[in-house]
Design goal:
The chain is an alpha/beta fold and 440 residues long. The protein is 44% helix and 12% strand. The protein contains 18 helices and 12 strands. The strands form 5 sheets. Strands 1-2-3 form a 3-stranded parallel beta sheet, with helices on one face. Strands 4-5-8 form a 3-stranded antiparallel beta sheet. Strands 6-7 form a two-stranded antiparallel ribbon. A hairpin with a 3-residue loop joins strand 6 and strand 7. Helix 9 packs across helix 11. It is elongated and about 105 Å long. It starts with a strand and ends in a 10-residue tail after the last helix. The mean pLDDT is 95.
């Protein structure tokens, strides 16, 4: 069975960058009728917060990305200890005691010699007495995984054939000196035990994937299928990382961006297929193909979500917004007609309130100085309230005859005066919804 996972660290909110991993893994699982696991990588007790766990759940549910099981790494420390013991027994995990300063000096020396800055495995030459002495002086060391110096190869679901020489990579640290398990060991142990078959993540993890493939093999597991998606940039190709704090899903939601707008864009952005607005998750699942995505950096512009949101809203049936319209105080007899009139003229759902306030209380007129006499003359010809579907046509015909104005010179000043807006629904539809007589 296909099993995927999304593994956020609860140290912050989900942003548009890591949403790609969540969405792609969710789509793969759902398309195959498999299992999607939400796994919180919360082994860092100082930075992991319950508020972020709750927020991540809330954001995924808002998007409709439900999960089949939930796991927390903080409750699986015994499993990581067992994996570490297994690696020690097989000679693949060794303790190293270099300080950060010493490691930095080694890196600089290698770079000055024109060599790759790879850890020299000096710790492997230590005797038991050496290790005991260093432990007494410096405390517990870090634990590194001893890589087999051979080529690590796999066929990536997006990048194609990958081949990395393990000798060009430092033996990764799996356990810190304070005993905290780092992502690499914990993730491999989880993926192996949970039977994860497919992993999609950012292209910045390619080297991590290479080392993890060896760790999985050392633990007797089978490597899943990997796919590494391109990294997002800003609209001009600039690094997006500095802006991710303003692109949290909850910030986009607060701006009125619709879930289906986000999902429709992110399910196609960076692929060979055009972005198409979808109306359901089932449509997004059906149209998803991981092999259609490319390796080149992918430009993301948050402004692209605005027209998609407007189109999403315009396509909503009345039943989808009836409760919100009722909360605005729109009388039940007018509710469906209100939605029919405004649904193609709002950028976010919040703008429904603006239109209802206009219909209920009237607008602040927008009248240019050169149109003031004309508007006053026109208002004097306005039929009495309540206004009907023919009021606008009858009124403008009388005004045209009385003033000689026509076209935009006739209609736009009246729109500005009645609604206080440059654009909006057909005025013949607006007038019947006005709850009070027009006055200036």
């Amino acid at each position: 069975m296909t099993t995927t996972r999304f593994a956020p660290s609860p140290t912050g909110y989900i942003h548009i960058g890591n949403l790609r991993a969540a969405l792609f893994n969710w789509l793969i699982a759902r398309k195959a009728g498999g299992t999607f696991i939400l796994r919180f990588d919360d082994t860092d007790p100082e930075r992991s917060k319950q508020e972020y766990i709750d927020a991540i759940r809330e954001d995924l549910e808002w998007l409709g990305l439900t999960w089949d099981r939930e796991e927390h790494q903080s409750s699986r420390i015994d499993r990581y200890n067992a994996a570490a013991d297994e690696l020690r027994t097989s000679g693949r995990l060794y303790e190293a005691f270099e300080t950060p300063t010493e490691l930095d000096l080694k890196r600089k020396k290698l770079l000055n010699m024109g060599k790759p800055p790879v850890y020299d495995r000096a710790a492997l030459a230590l005797s038991d007495d050496d290790r005991a002495k260093l432990r007494a002086e410096r405390g517990d060391g870090v634990w590194r995984f001893k890589l087999d110096h051979e080529r690590i190869e796999w066929t990536d679901g997006i990048l194609g054939p990958i081949s990395i020489d393990a000798a060009s990579v430092s033996d990764p640290v799996l356990i810190r000196g304070d005993g905290q398990f780092l992502y690499t060991l914990a993730s491999v142990a989880d993926d192996t035990e949970f039977g994860v078959t497919d992993i999609v993540r950012g292209a910045d993890h390619v080297t991590n994937t290479a080392t993890q493939i060896q760790i999985i093999a050392a633990l007797g597991g089978t490597a899943p299928r990997f796919a590494h998606h391109s990294l997002l940039t800003g609209p001009q190709g600039e690094a997006l990382s500095k802006r991710l704090g303003t692109l949290a899903l909850r910030d986009l939601r607060a701006q009125g961006i619709e879930p289906m707008a986000i999902l429709s864009l992110m399910a196609r952005l960076g692929s060979a297929d055009p972005v198409e607005l979808r109306t359901s998750l089932d449509e997004i699942v059906e149209g998803f193909d991981i092999t259609r995505f490319g390796a080149a950096p992918t430009k993301f512009d948050a402004d692209d979500l605005k027209p998609l949101t407007a189109r999403t809203i315009a396509a909503l049936p009345f039943e989808a917004v009836a409760a919100e319209i009722k909360e605005l105080g729109v009388p039940g007899a007018l509710a469906a007609r209100f939605w029919e009139v405004v649904h193609e003229n709002i950028a976010t759902r919040a703008e429904m309130a603006d239109w209802w306030a206009l219909f209920r209380d009237g607008a602040t007129p927008m009248v240019a100085d050169e149109d003031r006499d004309f508007v006053e003359q026109a208002i004097a010809l306005l039929p009495p309230h309540p206004y009907g579907p023919d009021t606008w046509g009858d009124w403008t015909s009388q005004v045209k005859e009385a003033t000689g104005r026509k076209g935009r010179g006739l209609f736009m000043p009246l729109r500005h005066a009645v609604t206080g807006k440059e654009r909006g629904p057909e005025m013949a539809d607006v007038l019947p919804l006005l709850q009070k007589p027009l006055s200036f």
